[in-house]
Amino acid sequence: MSLDKFDGLSVGYSDVAAAAVRLEGHAHKTPVMTSSAIDALFGAKFFFKCENLQRTGSFKFRGAFNAVAALPHDVRRRGVLAYSSGNHAQAIALVGRLLQIPTTLLMPRDAPALKIQAVRGYGGEIVFYDRYTEDREAIGEKLARDRGRSLIPSYDHPGVIAGQGTATKELVEQAGPLDRLFVCLGGGGLLAGAALAARELAPACAIIGVEPDAANDGQQSFRAGHVIHIPVPKSIADGAVVTHLGTNNFPIIRRLVDDIVTVPDEALIAAMNLFAERMKLIVEPTGCLAAAAAFSGAFHRPGERVGVLVSGGNLDAARFAQLILGQA
């Protein structure tokens, strides 16, 4: 893959541009929405890139399709395997259906029921594991070897990172210049891809990754200058419950991102409520990470043009009501 001007990185902007071509006609070009009410509340001009309206309900379809479609045909037809708490699993399962290849998804037993049902609906085979006592990476590598399938990690993969970067590429093209960009951070694929696109298309833009308070491995790693592993955290942001960043995405994040901040679960619920009331959008807790930081007012200046990646909306009505009513 091209390194472009960011020498030494495993992915460059040209890979993001190539992914955009590969995704043409397959991924939705999701809308960038605005809200004068939210602008007035928080004193900036916000541009929300609504990946909750992407195929499978999250940005994950971009990286999954790009990574799988780029495999040589003879390798691809043997099938792929991925591990995921839900959104990447759904994306891989749908890609498998579209490309007519078998898919196996390693998912935690406590993954949201809606996401499990969606994976099965797309035709993916599910293998469950316990996220608190078992190592999904070791299990996934063994399963991939045993079944002769290509392993497509949810975030630590050059093709996945490049695909995720297309969301920010579209955002800048749709919204114009940005002063600041807030990006949800779990494993780091979305943030790394966003950083590549933003640095190329809006070089003066400040790039801010956002994690849950309880899952701040990325923030710790960013401060320390090397990847830090933490115990499996607990947060309502299930898509960001990871223990460490990846070897492909961390160097990109360290070099190109300006800061990583955290927000409490309560701020995610408040953002969910605001999205529903003011913009009529259903956004899952993980998808609210970037918005929760932006809405805090602590990380941007008044009057700035602020981009916010809304990463996903896979949340059933019962769980949404439970969270909004404070019954989590």
The CATH architecture classification of the largest domain is: 3-Layer(aba) Sandwich
- Helix and strand string, N-terminal first? HEHEHHEHEHEHEHEHEHHEHHEH
CATH class of the largest domain: Alpha Beta
Shape: globular
Rounded to the nearest angstrom, the distance between the terminal CA atoms is 43 Å
Q: How many distinct folded domains?
A: 2
Radius of gyration: 18 Å
CATH topology of the largest domain: Rossmann fold
Q: What is the number of E strands?
A: 10
Quaternary organisation? single chain
Helix-and-strand structural type: alpha/beta
The order of strands across the largest sheet is: 1-2-10-7-8-9
Low-confidence stretches: none
The average pLDDT score comes to: 94
Count of DSSP-assigned helices: 14
- Percent range of helical residues: 40-55%
The major β-sheet equals: 6 strands, mixed
Notable traits:
Rossmann fold; 44% helix; 4-stranded parallel sheet; 328 residues; alpha/beta; 6-stranded mixed sheet
Overview of this structure, please?
The chain is an alpha/beta fold and 328 residues long. The protein has 2 domains: 213 residues, Rossmann fold (3-Layer(aba) Sandwich); 91 residues, Rossmann fold (3-Layer(aba) Sandwich). The chain contains 14 helices and 10 strands. Helix 3 crosses helix 8, helix 5 runs parallel beside helix 6 and helix 12 crosses helix 13.
